[in-house]
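Sample intake sheet
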Amino acid sequence: MGTLLIILAILFLALIVILPLVEKYAPKGEVRNFGNLTRFIFPLMALLIVVQMVRYYFF
C-alpha cells in the first residue's frame, strides 16, 4: 500500500512539472478556447483517486 501511494505521488508531481512544459513548448498554430480550468482536470482526477484510496484503506 505504501509503495502504491509513493508511485502515485511521484506521478502526480511529474504531471505538475510536465504539464506547464508541454504547454509552454506546444505549437501555437491552434487557437485555444478551452478555458483555464481544463488543464487541471487530470491532476484533479488523480488527486481524487488518491483521496478515495486513502479514505477506503484508512477510514
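Comment: The chain has a mean pLDDT of 83. DSSP finds two helices and no strands in the chain.
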